[in-house]
Amino acid sequence: MKVMQINVVYSNGSTGNIVRDIHMGLLENGHTSIVCYGRGKKVDEKNIYKTAPEFVMKMQSLRSKITGYAYSGCFFSTQKLLSVIKKENPDVVHLHCLNGFFVNIYRLLKFLKINNIKTVLTLHAELMHTAGCGNALDCEKWKTGCGNCPQKGAGRPSSKIFDRSAEEWKLMADAFEGFDNLVIAPVSGWLGERAKQSPFLKDKKFVVVTNGVDTVNTFKPTDYSEIKTKHGIKNEKIILYVTPNFKNPFKGGIYIIDLAYRLKNDKVKIIIVGFNGDMGDLPTNVIPVKHTKNHSELAKYYSMADLTLLTSKKETFSMICAESLCCGTPLVGFEAGAPETISINKYSEFVKQGDVDALEYATRRWLNKKQEYSDEISKEAGKIYSKEQMYEKYVNIYKGWFRC
Questions:
Q1: Residue 35 scores a pLDDT above 70
Q2: Given a cut of 50, is residue 70 above it in pLDDT?
Q3: How far apart are CA 95 and CA 122, in angstroms?
């Protein structure tokens, strides 16, 4: 079986690592695997293609800001991608994140449709069923056709002059129309139920495949004595907050600072991994740590923490949930869509979005519970969120094409 994956990045970020894990799983099991990606450094590996130069993507981003069209254009990089598909002639094409200005989404979908290529589309975000928004929050215009976009410049890449949301919605609807050789794979049941409300996806086949992490070598209870000494932590309780960008209001970092002030008289330290703000403005019980791409280091922080917090407005899965639980650390957060559905109820609690009083109460209640469950959390989470279970589910989808 020959499988080609297409994603904005490879071996970098959450989706890039997922693509790599699937790629390696396919190779280890005797299949042929190809990966095409757009952004990042060129990877010198067999069957790994970078299809878009960085300069082209910068120009496409500029084009988007001027014209308002974020997901078209990309003529030459799209042409290169299509030529690779023709050359490799895969049995299955597996699409992941197609944002990032590296491909004309509509042209790619139509090519796969017209050529009757078996296609799996993983929904990591809401981009595809909203026709533009990575996360639509409370907006429901995508269910009827968009226009006058309230997410313009925020959740949806756009021009300050033009609102193309209605036009892009029609372009996406047209691309999916008649695309029957397609399986939609949302990363959570919550996201799947959202996507099924899209007029152009509602009749497609859906199979939920939860994201997986390396629970054997990386995300597991790990010795953290080194970083505990590094940060001068002694007998304090540790609360962990992990974010790709602390300044992004969508991730709710402001609530962490609020909570820190509320806990300032307690024997508690709050570690923020991914902090990129002004350290001078932080409460004294907050320890800022820059963003880390080192998963082994991140696992040490999860393992050291007594509790992990999640304060995003919306999440379509939440790797933080999976990673924290796999390292044996319970989780408290705001209701954000998918996290409260994919997390293990026994070891987590989610309160009403934005309710800091409820968040504080839940935090205090859970700070002493980690010891109660000992290794229970990591053992159960290790089965649910393993990259092996994710791989097997995708392979079953791929193989399902050949049983039809």
A1: yes
A2: yes
A3: 6
Q: What is the pLDDT of residue 402?
A: 60
pLDDT digit string (tens) for 107-139? 999 999 999 999 999 999 999 999 888 888 888
Residues counted in the chain: 404
Is 385 in contact with 379 (CB distance < 8 Å)? no
How far is the C-alpha of 5 from the C-alpha of 121, rounded, in Å?
Answer: 10
Q: Domains in the chain, start-ordered, CATH in brackets?
A: 2-212+387-403 (3.40.50.2000), 225-384 (3.40.50.2000)
Using alpha carbons, select from 264, 135, 118 the residue that is nearest to residue 185: 118
The string of pLDDT tens digits covering residues 274-329 is: 998 777 789 999 999 988 889 999 999 999 999 999 999 999 999 999 999 999 99
Average pLDDT over residues 62-66: 77
**Taking all residues of the chain, what is their mean pLDDT, rounded to a whole number?**
92
- pTM as predicted: 0.93
Report the C-alpha gap between 91 and 223 in whole angstroms.
43
At residue 404, does pLDDT exceed 50? no
Please tell me the distance from the alpha carbon of residue 205 to that of residue 184, in angstroms, as a whole number.
Answer: 6
Secondary structure of the chain as H, E, C letters? CEEEEEECCCCCHHHHHHHHHHHHHHHHCCCEEEEEECCCCCCCCCCEEECCCHHHHHHHHHHHHHHCCCCCCCHHHHHHHHHHHHHHCCCEEEECCCCCCCCCHHHHHHHHHHCCCEEEEEECCCHHHHCCCCCCCCCCHHHCCCCCCCCECCCECCCCCCCCHHHHHHHHHHHHCCCCCEEEEECCHHHHHHHCCCCCCCCCEECCCCCCECCCCCCCCCCCHHHHHHCCCCCCEEEEEECCCCCCHHHCHHHHHHHHHHCCCCCEEEEEECCCCCHHHCCCCEEEECCCCCHHHHHHHHHHCCEEEECCCCECCCHHHHHHHHCCCCEEEECCECHHHHCCHHHEEEECCCCHHHHHHHHHHHCCCHHHHCCHHHHHHHHHCEHHHHHHHHHHHHHHHHHC
Q: Of the ranges 61-65, 261-265, 352-356, which one carries the lowest mean pLDDT score?
A: 61-65
Type of residue found at 227: I
Say which amino acid occupies 283.
P
As beta bridge partners, residue 332 has: 309, 349
Give the span between the Cα atoms of 351 and 363, in whole angstroms. Answer: 10
DSSP-derived pairing of the beta strands 182-186 and 205-206: parallel
